[in-house]
Amino acid sequence: MASSVDRDPRHHTQKMQKALEELRTHLREDIRKVDEPQLKAMFETAAEVLGGLETAFRDYEKKNESAWR
């Protein structure tokens, strides 16, 4: 049976935000480590997309968007 923490949506949204932030940070750090411009662009694009997902999770948690109300 799931614990009360496991049932709390904020527990899950916060875990996902942390994982997305860590991956976004890793991508941005690796941009400085590679020389290929296309790979740099892909890493930057991926980091931007992950940032958008972080925002979506944060908005859900705070009910900032009408879709989450």
General description of the model:
The protein is mainly alpha-helical. It has a domain at 28-60. The chain has helices at residues 4-7, 9-31, 37-62. Helix 2 runs antiparallel to helix 3. The longest helix has 26 residues, at 37-62. The radius of gyration is 15 Å and the shape is elongated.
For this entry, give a set of tags.
69 residues; mainly alpha; 3 helices
The helix-strand sequence is HHH
Largest sheet: none
* Percentage of residues assigned to helices: over 70%
Shape, per Cα inertia axes = elongated
Structural class, by secondary structure, is mainly alpha
User: Got a strand count?
Assistant: 0
Strand content: under 5%
End-to-end Cα distance, whole Å, is: 28 Å
Mean pLDDT: 91
What is the radius of gyration?
Answer: 15 Å
Number of helices: 3
Which residue ranges are poorly predicted, with pLDDT under 50 across at least 5 consecutive positions? Answer: none
